[in-house]
Amino acid sequence: MTDTRNLLRRAPPPPTELPPLITWIDPPTQRYYAFCVLVGLWSIKLGRLLISPRPTPLGIWWWYLLDITFVIIYIPLGYLNGQHLDPSQAYCRRRLRFVITSGYQRFFGERVHAISSQGIIKIDEVRHNSSHIKGKHIVRFLPYATAKLNPDDDKFCLQRVPRVEVDVPVLFNNSKPWKLEYSHIDPDTNEKTHINMTRKLLQKRLTSDEIANTYLVYIPIDHPGVYRLEQAWDKDNMNIKTYRNEVIISHCPIAKFVARHSSDRCIDDDINVDLILQGVPPFNVRYERLVDDVGINMTISGVAPDRYVSPIMGEQVVSHDYTWARNRVVEVPLNLTADTAATYILKLIDIQDGLNNTRTFSGKSLQDDTVMFLVHPRPYAKLLSDSTVKVRPGKSTNLSLELGGEGPWSITTGYWAEDVAKDGDSSAPNKVETIKFLPNKDTSIIVSKPGMYQLLSISDTFCSGQVLVPSSCIVIEVQPPSVKIEAVPIPAIDCPGEIGQEITVSLTGTPPWSLHYSITTKLSEITDFKKIFKSRHTFTIMPKTFGRHEYRFFLLRDGFYDEGVNIDHRITQVVHPKPDATFRTTYGKELNTCVGNNVELDVDFSGSGPFTLEYEVVFNRRKNTFTVGDIKSLSHVISSPPFDNPGTYTVTLVRVTDAKGCSNSLNASDDITIHVKKDRPTVGFRTDGEAMKFIEGDRIDLPLQLTGHPPWDIEYGSLNVSSKARMTARNLKDPNAHVTVTLPGLYELLSVKDSFCTGEVIESMRFIRAEWLPQPTLRIADGEATLLDVPNYYERKPVCEGTEDSVGVILSGRAPWIISYKITGEGEPIPQRETIGFPSTRIRLLTESPGTHTYEFKTIADDVYTLPNEISLTLRQIIISNPTAHFIQHKTFNQCVGETLPFSQSPKIQLKGIPPFSLTVETKNENSNRIDTQVIHNIADEVYTYVPPKFMAIGNYSIAIVKVIDAQGCSRKQNSQESKLRVEVNDVASIQRLIPQDIHCVGDLLVYQLQGTPPWVIHYTYNGEKKNVVSNTPDYTFGADRPGNVTITSVCHLNEQCCGHPKGMSEVIYDLPTAIISSGKETISDIREGEKDEIVIEFIGNPPFRFTYTRSEILPKGKPGRVLETQTVTNVRGHKHSLFVSQEGIFQVIYIADKYCDYPREGTTVNV
Predict the structure, then answer these.
(1) Do residue 337 and residue 384 come from a single domain?
(2) Same domain, 668 and 692
(3) Which of 362, 769, 781, 788 is deepest in the core (most CB within 10 A)?
């Protein structure tokens, strides 16, 4: 305070007030006159704004002149001594600088630093880049009386044979023709002839449409040339406006194929065809190439003679020279290779000449428009095998051939005798022979002599072929097989007589051999054979029956003589075979049974009956012998008594005796083991009396308790009323096995059987019940919300914005639960998903934004029902908006120590809500972190002037509105930049957005505020590229000249000290949208009254689009006409939009906006 008082003492005295220069007008009248002039200037400005809302060069000069006038009038008022209008010099300088700067910027454009290149740009040139709106579409009505030759631009051509004239139409609008004149130019001589169509002929060839008021006249044309409609008159002899179009008529184009060779070709041959074209070049020809009905369309474009010049081909020709339209003949050679055997067809589809005359070929004729070639496969020949071929003496054999191609074939063969073939001599064959083969006939060569045969060549009707390998074969001569048989009787042991023969054979021929023989008795004859692989072999024949046997060997086969050689060798013998008995192993060597059961065993016999059988039963080292006699059949059943004791029993066949007393001790290993179990199997459901629960739609395993020996077979049934069924589970190997069911209900066990015998069901465990688990549910807890008239629709009491609130819910099922719901408020719906571990919980409600919030609960799942189940429950709550408070003028200011701001310069606070308000304001010394809090009550107005307190120490201070409460009791804690005023010290350089924006567009200004000591260095990245700029002022402005991503990374003082690294200083700059009408060109469409024209507008940007277009009147010489209508189209989702118009005018887009930006721009950002 002392320093301040000293400064005040040393301050110079205030200047003496000057006397008024105008004394004849009192000060109140001066103020009145000045006020009227200012009101007049602003009235002119308002009028100019209403007339032309968008700036023009002349309008900029107008505004600049008005501002200068204001300065000229306002500043001298102090010198005129107009009381209460004496501005300070600082204010005058600021106002003058503002006016001059704003006027300069309006005229010359505001210059700022480009954010992409750091160069200086005019931001208005970026904002008002006319390339964002391109093209215009002009729609005009056709005049009333017009005549047009060939109005539909049809194509006409003259047939050569037969010669028929064509009728070319002339369309007359709103006027009936009386006579007309047309011209003809001969393309051969360029000679022009005028032809008048008389009224009589015209009326004869006239058709009319009285409703549409149109007339058609058909001009008969029978000579090629160029035709133009020169003049036309109506019945009043008034000229009818004629279109200066022309029709060029030529002979219809002709195309044909001419083959250079025959239609039969072979694979790899060339196919040569000439395509003859006749008409007006250039020609476009399409033809189809078919290979076995598989077609490929071929196109030949732009066919013309050498050095042919035509405007159709974009070349310059002499004006009025139509010799290019003469008839020309062009020959096009077509060459292709026959690479596959097929029918090749070249078929003309159509031909188009240079005048777009098209002739389509039907393809029915096979003369000129179609040519066909049959491509034959080249034949081939080879032997099916190169193995040595054996032939019998005096016989012949066939060498099988494989022939390819189309028969008949002609094959040349060579023969080398056996001695020549063995020597390997390469001399000429002993015999050469040509053989003819017909299709579908035998393709074999008959040979009889031993030696070598070889294929030399092959050909068929159309083509020569190729001999493939194997192409040669060796033939040898083979003799029949023979055999020598020696027989030795086999005597019986311990019994009289013989039991068989031992046969030894010696063989010649080709292995393997088959020796066939028969065994004949009084009652039967048995035929058999032996497969022999060696030239000497011994085997035995031992019949099973008693009596006289004859062994007769009657046939010998070898590997070559398959039909065999007849032989006759006989051996006679009386056979005495030993008896034999064996178990029939139908059920295996081991059997299982239970105590009290018996078993039956089948025994098979061989020999001479009746038989006596002796067998033993062994149990616990005790052996019991049993004898069964007088067994007359060859099979017998041994039935055991019921087993009294459990254990293992072994049944063994000991001896068998036949009718002659000859006995045979049997093989001890041929026995049957019987396992006898004491306990029978049991089955029951393992349950504690409670029903088994499972998920609806799933399956459940019903546990079993099994005793006995696996595997088990059980039967069980369902006692459900809806689905009674009897079911079987087989081959259960686990005593704790289970059966699987899918339906709830009561299930009963019916029977059980293990590997030994049938058991019983335990009565106390016969039944089990299966039930579905209950599905999870969700409901609002009692007292938490009010149920409305709509089912399952609740409403919770309103709360203030930002107030913590939650609703209690009750869940049933098994934890944890997963619920999903959707929150619908003022913005987009928010899907939510929560996992809850307790059946009674609370769900937090969103209260951050005011409005009506709706919570729609959609699905619920728990630990059992893991797949979400749909539910229907809705909760609604109204969130009351909290009051807001912010400084109207958000700026940084300096304040002297110990002084307060004048009331007129004190900041004003804008309040929103329901008054009266209470404010909590904090004043913070950022050096000492001391915070002084002030509470202001009963603020009745929405604009409040806040006078800051005195600051008694040097430092950085901030004044912040931290809380505001309105009459509803709702409060808001303030933490935004708009709720703060700041006195900065140059401790650490900092930067912040001066104008916060969510969306930036090309042409926007990115304004930043710097704090600290100037100058500053701002470091930033643009699209990943590092850049920096120097600012000498605390406000720095970038011009967004291109789209991209901008991030402020740091700000420093010039010496790179006291750097601040801001967070979240990233901006995305979107490009301005573009509207292109009629492909960016000026398009003129002539339509008749009542018709519609399509105007296509293309968009570049991010949909949805909104655009405004105008329709202006058409004035001569391109003068701008007045705007007849303005239309706005919104919510265009695609990048192309069509307008269908039926009115005359100039259609132009004047405004385009996409999701982020618009053009032309009035402000810094337009949110679409």
Answers:
(1) no
(2) no
(3) 769
Distance separating alpha carbons of residues 127 and 110, to the nearest angstrom: 11
Among 100-109, 515-524, 581-590, 758-767, the minimum mean pLDDT is found in 100-109
For residues 605 and 634, give the distance between their C-alpha atoms in angstroms, rounded to a whole number: 5
Same-domain check for residues 286 and 430: no
pTM of the prediction?
Answer: 0.36
User: What long-range pairs does 315-321 form, CB within 8 A, spacing at least 24?
Assistant: 320/185, 320/190, 321/190
pLDDT tens per residue across span 809-827: 999 998 899 999 999 988 8
Q: Categorize the per-residue pLDDT at 16 as very low, low, confident or very high, splitting at 50, 70 and 90.
A: very low
- One DSSP character per residue, 750-813 reads EEEE-SS-B-EE-GGGSEEEEEEPPPPEEEEPTTSSEE-SSTTEEEEEEEETT---EEEEEEES
Domain extent for 819: 777-880
pLDDT, one tens digit per residue, over 25-38 is: 776 777 777 778 77
Q: Give pLDDT tens digits for 670-699.
A: 788 888 888 889 999 998 888 998 888 889
Pairing between strand 840-844 and 917-925? unpaired
> 1167 vs 799, which has greater pLDDT?
799
Task: Note the Cα 372 to chain centre separation in Å.
Answer: 45
What is the chain's mean pLDDT, rounded? 84
- CATH code at 224? 2.60.40
Domain edge (last residue) among 424, 447, 477 = 477
- C-beta separation of 220 from 167 below 8 A: yes
What average pLDDT does this structure show over 1010-1037? 87
CA dist 1068 and 1050 (Å) reads 18
Could you tell me if 616 and 756 lie in one domain?
A: no
What pLDDT was estimated at residue 1?
39
CA distance 519 to 553: 9
| 121 falls within a domain | no
- % residues pLDDT > 90 (the chain): 36
Is the same domain home to 559 and 649?
no
The answer to whether 286 touches 299, Cβ cutoff 8 Å, is yes
**Would residue 1064 count as lying in a domain?**
yes
Distance, in Å, from the CA atom of 168 to the CA atom of 251, rounded to the nearest integer, reads 15
Q: Is the pLDDT of residue 945 over 80?
A: yes
Tell me what pLDDT residue 1064 has: 84
Residues 1093 and 1117 in one domain: yes
Task: Give bridge partners of residue 249 from the DSSP assignment.
Answer: 225
Return the number of other C-beta atoms located less than 10 Å from residue 493's C-beta: 7
- In the predicted structure, residue 82 carries a pLDDT above the cut 60: no
CA proximity to 560, closest of 351, 395, 683: 395
Q: Residue 360 forms beta bridges with which residues?
A: 350
pLDDT single digits (tens) 292-303: 989 999 999 889
| H, E, C per residue of 400-445 | EEEEECCCCEEEEEEEEEHHHHHHCCCCCCCEEEEEEECCCCCCEE
| pLDDT at residue 98 is higher than 70 | no
741: left (phi over 0), alpha (psi -120 to 50) or beta: beta
Residues 348 and 311 in one domain: yes
124 part of a folded domain: no
Q: Is the per-residue pLDDT at 794 higher than 90?
A: yes
Q: How far apart are CA 1152 and CA 1083, in angstroms?
A: 20
Whether 126 is in a domain gets the answer no
| Bigger pLDDT: 314 vs 518 | 518
Angstrom distance (rounded) from CA 1168 to CA 1108: 14
Specify the amino acid at residue 791.
Answer: P
The answer to whether 73 and 38 have CB atoms below 8 angstroms apart is yes
Say how far apart CA 1146 and CA 140 lie, in whole Å: 9
Instruction: Give 153's contacts (C-beta < 8 A, 6+ positions apart).
Output: none
Nearest to 608 by CA among 562, 639, 574: 574
Please indicate, yes or no, whether residues 1037 and 1110 belong to a single structural domain of this protein: no
